[in-house]
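Worked Example 4.2. Consider the chain below.
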Amino acid sequence: MADMEVSLWRILILVCILAACAQQRTPTGGPRDTEAPRIVSAEPLPMSTYFDAQSIEIVFDEFVRLENVREQVLISPPLEDNPDIQLKGGRRLIIDLGDQELAENTTYTINLGSAVVDNNEGNVLESNVYLFSTGAVIDSLEMRGRILTAAYNRPCGDCLALIYPDVADSMILGGRPLYVARTDGEGNFYLSNLAMGDYQLMGLRDINGDLGIGETEPIAFTDSTLRPLERDTIGYTLRLSRAFQDDPALNSADWGLDGSYLELTFRGTDSIPEFAGSAHDRLSFIQSFTQQGDSLRLWFAPPVIAEDELIISYAQLQDTLSPGRVTERAEQSVLMVATLDDEQSPAELQFSSPIARLDTNGIELTRDSISEPFQIQAEFPALAISLSADWSIGNYTLTLDPGTVEDIYGASNDTLVTVLRLPSPESFGILRLDIDLPYNGDFVCQLLDKNDQVIRSVSFDDDGTWEVEYLNPDSYTLRVYEDTNGDDSWTPASFVDRRQPEPVFMLSEAIVIRANWEVEQEVKVDFRP
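Applying the procedure from the previous section yields the following structure tokens:
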């Protein structure tokens, strides 16, 4: 019996061992592959002269794959037809140039970018530039620099640096560049293997991907022609902006279903258009969303009918609009939203439709159930009115009795009650800036939020101090630009006039505001990038 028990134990141990041997486990593998693919051969050889081949074959030391070839591969000078780029056998890259004619005595660079990666870990090919010349020598001059967005002096990653011959500006528009390079994430570019000559250097955000400058694309340019160097140690800074004046046009026109309003957007205009026609006879109020008057809402009272026409005249152009079918305007009461920012500013009362009449006897402002005196400022018709009072910390109740306001359609309000809250100054922060300007002139200083929206703004013509109160706790950015044309707004470049964008300075570090804190900071404005 004892011998039988020992035999059973031996069998069980043997089964367990066999089961362990048969169990499937994920292999641990060796160390992670961090080596990039390497080129072991190429035909024709890199740096070849008198190049006349129709295809290039590059062989790698391991299996690779292609990623985003169209976006990554950049050939300079650009070819008329994009080559066919394919992998064969997993290790052979074929660049088929076809039978297109290459320029004589020209050095070409094929920059593969990060299009070639190894098959396992995605390590990017490092030696990614292939050179050849159709002439006897490989050109070796260079230009380097940086492209920044002109409005905020931020790096323009994935933009293009373009070199054109010294020709008329009209030849550059729509023409193909002689050389091209793509910027890195910091906006840096490097144009290599250039021939001697006088060139125009341009920057481009290539929205349509055609390697050419279009009038709707942001560009940058230098003030004069440039010559490449054997070694460019200084570099050029290009500031990118919209540089062409849009042709005036009516972008959109959207009628309200009941004919009570019309929303219009324009391009290439700097003033509110003129209106005529039968619909104009019903026009009661013009609401402009921008200072330039390129975004409008027209309010009609009574609403237009299907047969009405509105004639719009702008920039020596004219459009005629008709609403077509309209529905009857539904009965609706007037609504209101009221805001109060700080104790030094009036409250703003915004209404859902233009107000034609207001009875101040129907307005009551109370604090702790005690009536407070107030003053109303408005020119009717109006979508917003200002209500001033001797504000102090705490909550106010604003009540409008029924019928206190009447809009341009004869509709009035029901009882409207809203609470205006004025936090204590300790809830805000104060910013005090000592601004040192580089020279006398017209400058605009702007405090921006995280979305580049202007929170506060002030103009300076000399060094000075700017104190900004009632700032919500948050992180802000300071922007200063020189208002060279005195229009109180930042002006981009004009390629036609060869005028650079107005210079901009951005404070490099964020300004952090905390509740009940005063932040003092010295700012030395320097427009050099």
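The helical segments are 2-22, 69-72, 169-172. The chain has five domains: 39-133, 141-240, 250-321, 336-422, 428-524. Compare this with Example 4.1 before moving on.
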